[in-house]
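FORM 7B - TANDEM STRUCTURE REPORT

SECTION 1: FIRST PROTEIN
SEQUENCE AND TOKENS:
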Amino acid sequence: MNFEKIYKWSLFYDLLRSYGRVLHNYIFYRKVYVNGIENIPDKTPLILTANHQNALMDAMALIFAADHQPVFLARSDIFSKPIIAKILRSFKIMPVYRIRDGIKSLGKNDEIFNYSVQVLKNNKRLAIMPEGNHGNRRKLRMLKKGVARIAFRAEEVNNFELGLNIIPVGIDYSNYTNFRNSLFINFGKPFTIKEFKDIYEENPKKAFLLFNEKLKKELSQLMIDIQNDEYYDTFYNMRELYNTAMRKKLGLVKNNLKSRFFAGKSIISLLEKAGNKAPDELKWLKEKDEELQKGLKLFKLRHWILEKKKFSYLALIFQSVIQIVFLPVHIYGIITNYLPYKIPVWITNKIKDKQFVSSVKYVLLLIIFLIFYLIEYLIFALFAESVWIRNVFLLSLPIAGYFTIENWILFKKLKSKWIYNIAISSRNKKLIHITDLYKSIMHKMDELASKYSS
């Protein structure tokens, strides 16, 4: 397949991106926070390099974070069918071949790398996931040499005068698979290939190694990178449990994605130091946390509910009344949006690799909602002669769907608050034990913070 001029601006791509961005940034995710966008230079050849944990959604994060049309490199097996290959080509995606694709296939990479160089020579953006494939943990894995090979080749054929910038990007999700969660995209400061020129001319392999070491260090600072496999779950859970307390210690007033991210990074750093200096305390934390998580699962509660001793019954009653008042709107939203929302869920329940779940959901939602809204509009038009009424109905469909999803989330939180309050008021021994566990963990984290926070 010919990938010449794949970097050219595409109207089809731009229109599809505009539609996809609305669904991605405002519907699929509750909040998308982009940090460091000012680090991306204009009219400069650059390679965006991001950590890879969530299949297609990582690419979507880069596409929708800024107004550009980057060319992506993706594994070649997804190009196996001609029709799919043409679709991917229209989305500005080129294949990269691996050893598992066959030794003979590796030779095709030379052509792809040459196309990549052409993208950069025309001051366009190339996007590559340097880990090569996605993982299911919040940790940076070993980087492949693909980025280095393309970057150095691009500079070499231009006598190291191209001015190529490497932009490391950290991507973090509040939840990989669920709908209406949050996404944090963290653009780092660019660095150039030219700084490795002398080393490359003397020893290319050494230059590749040093390049990857630098890129790995930069990426690690921009993402949630939990390298401790033995205590991974402990690090992960403490990042959530102790986040509010850490934000206060750091003076991060706002409870937004950026503040939570930097508080989480501080918690991970704190636990790494504790693991080196006081392994017994980390072991204690792991045991208590495992017990706490089992208790929360038993009551079907989330950790945030333990931050309060009890919720106001007056507030709970008021919220319950509001739920009843808006129940008709909720039911209308269910009737008109249930199937287009549920069909992707039913389909993705069969996917074994859970890192593909949100990607498939997102693509299906792009298509299914349009189809269902059109069908519902046509059916409604059979009974409504007024064009004005038809248009109001059509507009009501996404609004009611959005309301129903948000209202359902509020309902589940309200239900948890009632369960928590009733159990506390009735002196439920198991829940009291859970709250005591939570307090002891928070106390231990306070102790560790006072000892090992830098």
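SECTION 2: SECOND PROTEIN
SEQUENCE AND TOKENS:
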Amino acid sequence: MISRRIIRTKAMHTLYAFYSSSEKSISNTEKELFFSIQKAYDLYHLLLALGIEVKKYAAERIESNRNKLRPTEDDLNPNLRFVNNAIIKKLEENVHFNEYLTDNKLSWINSEDMIQQLYRFMVETDLYIEYMASEEDSFEQDKKFMDKFFTRILLNFEDLFSELEETSVYWNDDVDFIVSIISRTVKKFKAESSEHMRLLPLFKDDEDREFAQELIRKVLINHKEYNTIIKDNLKNWDIDRIAFLDIIIMEMAVTEFLEFTAVPTKVTLNEYIELSKRYSTSRSSTFINGILDKILKDLKKNDRVKKAGRGLIGE
């Protein structure tokens, strides 16, 4: 589930905290990296659960309206399409999903006001109105709506971000990515999917888990050497005047050039330039691109870049 871009992002934040702190334990820093990655997986489950909570609130409103002293025709014969949504039902019944929520004590129990506001926001959207009014009533229609609920309604609901910011410092930067993963999860559901269907795992495979651990460990162990490589390529630049985050980004890139034989140098360059665009100064990406390009040429000239694997030899 967690992409290597997210791993790199989490590693960058963790390294920044390490260098900014008096605490200099590599072991603790590794633990902090994996904790932050685990928190992203918590958010994946928690946002999926939000669809269930909104449905529960909608069902409560329907029941309350039915019990009015003078219910209208609509109150007595409500449109049940959303509260009967097949994808929400699949999540409610999913054994592994519910076990994760229980084991990790994840819930929206203290967010009733936010859930009510989200419901009110949702029912005013054209997406919801069209879904409820559609003549087609099918599993695929339910799936399409829930995909739009997460990718378009939820991402435009500003109160969610405030709620998450108050709950965990790890989450706001992750929402866009996690929602894209939730979209993939929703699309995986089939009408015949059982309650034992597995959701997406934390890591795609063991290689990604090892990549996370080795990246941060090798940056820290080789910090002095790689920092020197960067300094040697900063012609007419004083390293003390360069943004601290830019130095960390370049150290991570140099680490991948030298230590990760299966990662193409082009991928490394693209990934860290994108990181600098999102998290550093407006001029950082151009600056980092130029310095890393120069470093890579020097490393290749000295035969220090060793890439192995299909299509990577001599790249």
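SECTION 3: OBSERVATIONS ON SECOND PROTEIN
Residues 222-301 form a domain with the N-utilizing Substance Protein B Homolog; Chain A fold (CATH 1.10.940.10).
The chain has a mean pLDDT of 93.

SECTION 4: SIGNATURE
Preparer initials: ____
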